[in-house]
Amino acid sequence: MARITASVYTSHVPAIGAALDLGKSGEPYWQPVFKGYEASKAWMQANTPDVIFLVYNDHATAFSLDMIPTFAIGCADEFQPADEGWGPRPVPVVKGHPELAAHIAHSVIQDDFDLTIVNKMDVDHGLTVPLSLMFGQPAADKFAWPCPIIPFAVNVVQYPVPSGRRCFNLGRAIRKAIASFDRPLNVQIWGTGGMSHQLQGPRAGLINREFDTAFLDQLIADPEALAKKPHIDYVREAGSEGIELVMWLVARGAMGDESSAGAPKVVHRFYHVPASNTAVGHLILENT
Asked: Which listed residue (12, 97, 103, 197) is catalytic?
């Protein structure tokens, strides 16, 4: 059977992608950010999965205010990097895993979670920046990402957005779905977005290190309690875009704490301020 072996959590700041694409990763401003992912890239080389289930949010590229799915699963063979206004990122096409994606969709929908099945969509920096951080920057015309990726988009852009509790329970349903797939696949689940940041209004540039640190602590040690945090706490303490952190709860809910002997192993934890106008958070957990 397929099995989730690890979860990866990371910010997906668009300026990080731009720094990589423009060859600025070695500049003094960016060096501390990318240094925080060196251990992660080494771990990823030694633990490359068969499939990645990547939870992210679309930034009005695949979806617009005309159509806003709360949860959308990509079931296509491949997904093109999106043009977000300055051309697509120079990274490889994302190859999907339609068979596993369709199985997950069937199982999760039968468990009463309404998913939108998407057979064609472009993927923006929310998905491609985490891949670059964990795998490095392969040339778009010569290489491919090391494994297939199933995109899973969550609406955290237009209210109403899903609760942390619903995201956490969805992660549990995804874990169940993957465990019932009848091929021995090593699957990782990634939760992306966050951490504290606000892009507009009087509080633009808000960063709350105390909130972010407490969120990481609780995500590791007591995610079920963390899932009960109301939306207003994210907005008040972490800024209007801090709500992206509920996507980390999807990945955390998919870990095997409830059915294994112990809590997940913390492989790597990293936090840095600032990267552009936000904090960068990163965590890798392995199932025991």
From this structure: 197
